[in-house]
């Protein structure tokens, strides 16, 4: 028995091996209410959340820094979650400078009096962009546009240009209306909607999807895009547009417009900014440039007031 | 209290399990605790980093609802998460999980640099210890703010303790289950060992009718379809056939277990019915006990015979009047007989194991040791006669010492035998005396024979002279004296001749009463003159015997004359005849009322020339002649003074003569 006691004694000599480290004393009794203070003279800049906020931030963060430096204005990027929220924030003056697709622009122009002052030139050098109708590569039942009948369709958003409006017009031009689809769904949740469409088709949840041109490059790091095939491309329409909210100081608008138009793809620092923002140039624009879009919306029976 | 085998096994078993459990608990649990705390820490880091990543979008969108939902969801992940909050780039709290305001001091409690992944700081709130995790919230290279997460260290430890308790419970359950399983496994073993122990105990107590192995259920006669009822294994439910000798199976080898087991191992009965080691042990133990029982029975019989022989030998040794002893080579007494220890006046136990110095005087012991040593060394037996003076007088001992050889080279001990030859020595002396007397007798007879003639001449001439001289004269008186003395000399010479010369025997069968009557008729008148009365009581039946009647009459005359001489005047002589103790003997008693014989004299009365009478009254040859005649007739004569019968105070002497009757003589002749 004495051996057992010796063993127990040995064990009892083991100290606690925990590592407590040195604790600092913190008094939790002194409390305060959190009050966020609004910064004065902030010019808010918002990128229509067709992608995630992270992508939006990544693309436009350098541009914002450039504009702040170039214009001397306290420009800050904000991130509305949805297209609808983006539009409403323009209406509530929470967004001073809106960078959106043409379809959203014509809506905020009509609803809230926003005014276009610049538009971008796409990476492909075109001032316009197209929508794409995609399906899984292994989906043999969909080869042509007409095969999209009675299929389930996921679009980016009801307010998306390349991801809904342009393809809808494209279908319309080919005699396919909303009723011809088994289902029309929109990408859920805030932000990242373009990616969600691709991922939904990739997962096989929907037969076809509609996205704007260039989206597949964005998701190339998430999926093997070779498994996605493009069924059809829409006609090109005017590209993304910079618009100022109603009653924004024109001097501010001009400063920003000048700074934007000053961006030169051949300038090394500008090139980095432009490559991050995924366009090569910003050119002057006016509201009339988007009448074509207004016509398309009208053609497919969309009410810009809604 | 001593522990039994089962308890020792259990104790050892449980001790091992307990030690194992303690090792697991104290060592493994520490490792587990460290790992768990590390895991918990890592969990905090993981939650922080994860939440930090998820917080980017809502922070960009300044979506407080989503931020609130995220921090609240995080706190709800587990009880160990105390708080979560988000600071912006200026360390201003954006959102937090504290319900009643944000603790100001918490903001600066932990800092994480841009190049750090996470910073962990232990915070003591007074009530609790908290691991505070600070994780920077980055979007690309731009830091949006800091996420802070607080985990209760106490609750983490509680969680660890819960796991440790679970470990303890698991260990206890494992010990318990192992104990039950162990008990189930050990029970048959310990039971069998206990039964073996009990059986062994019983066997040691002498009870060999023990059965350790359980009753056999599978039996050889069933398997072999055997019906040999004479086989010792047939219908034997207690012993396996391979343990038994004399089994009748055709495949069996004759003989005991040692001879047959190799063959039995090839037999299908062995292959199919032999059990495990414990069962085999129990069965072999039973077989061993059975064999032991048989051997013991033989041994007991042998022991009984041996004891009987030993007792007989001891009886013989003790019955031998000679003393016998056995000593080992060191002179220590191993065995002695009764005569030996009686001689030493000791018990047997007082002698066994002792040496000469313990039993004899120093001088004697030294002498005996020297003798013993000589015999043991020379291996030559020693024969000697010892004269021993003791309390009971002088004794003569004839001693023989013989070496006992174990092997040719080795002497085991010494046997000493001694005999009391005192009586023999006395007889030898008597014989010597008798031989001397015989020589004297022969010499006297020769002399008597030689002087008998001159005496006759002297007497003749003396009688002639008496006739020639006047009877009143002095010469006549002198010659008469010469004649008288010459007659006396003739009588002496005649007695000497009778004593020393064997006269011719005339053996006839006669009635002893008649012989006595004839003698009495001759002497009664003479006796009566001196007022000596002879009383006689004859046996009613004739007492026939074979012998020399005249010689026996001489015996009675001598005895009656002696009685008469002892009485001198006024007395009586009683003569009785009858049978002795048996019908084969004739007993004649002659007693008188005379002066009697002293104790010293009575020993010598039968010796020649021994007399208490005056010089002119006896020659000392009468009773010697009488003794010789009685011996010649195979009888005995004994003298008692005072007489055995009658009034002893009156003195007197009684002679009892016992003679064989004719019946005995006839038998003796017939036998002879």
Low-confidence stretches of chain A: 13-20
How many distinct folded domains of chain A? 2
What percent of the residues of chain B sit in helical stretches (DSSP H or I)?
A: 40-55%
End-to-end separation of chain A: 89 Å
DSSP helix count of chain B? 18
Strand content of chain B: 15-25%
Poorly predicted ranges of chain B (pLDDT <50, ≥5 residues)? 664-672
What's the end-to-end separation of chain B, in Å?
86 Å
Strand content of chain A: 15-25%
Describe the structure.
The complex is a heterodimer of chains A (306) and B (672). With 306 residues, chain A is an alpha/beta fold. Chain A folds into 2 domains: 42-125 and 238-299, D-Maltodextrin-Binding Protein, domain 2 (3-Layer(aba) Sandwich); 131-235, D-Maltodextrin-Binding Protein, domain 2 (3-Layer(aba) Sandwich), CATH 3.40.190.10. In chain A, 36% of the residues lie in helices and 22% in strands. Chain A is built from 10 helices and 15 strands. In chain A, strands 4-3-5-14-6-15 form a 6-stranded mixed beta sheet. In chain A, strands 10-9-11-8-12 form a 5-stranded mixed beta sheet. Chain A has a two-stranded antiparallel sheet with strand order 7-13. In chain A, strand 3, helix 2 (53-71) and strand 4 form a beta-alpha-beta unit. In chain A, helix 2 (53-71) crosses helix 8, helix 2 packs antiparallel against helix 9 (268-277) and helix 3 (83-91) packs parallel to helix 4. Chain A starts with a helix and ends in a 7-residue tail after the last helix. The model of chain A is unreliable at 13-20 (pLDDT under 50). With 672 residues, chain B is of the alpha+beta class. Chain B has 5 domains: 5-168, PAS domain (Beta-Lactamase, 2-Layer Sandwich), CATH 3.30.450; 212-298, no CATH class; 334-415, Beta-Lactamase, CATH 3.30.450.20; 427-499, Helix Hairpins; 507-671, Heat Shock Protein 90 (2-Layer Sandwich). In chain B, strand 5 (129-139) and strand 6 (142-152) form a beta hairpin. In chain B, the strands form 4 sheets. In chain B, strands 2-1-6-5-4 form a 5-stranded antiparallel beta sheet. In chain B, strands 8-7-11-10-9 form a 5-stranded antiparallel beta sheet, with helices on both faces. The two termini of chain B are 86 Å apart. The A-B interface holds A 4, 7-8, 11, 14, 16-34, 36, 52-54, 56-58, 61, 77-81, 190-191 and B 15, 18-19, 22-23, 26-27, 30, 33-34, 37, 56-57, 60-63, 92-96, 98, 100-106, 109, 121-126, 129, 139-140, 142, 153, 157.
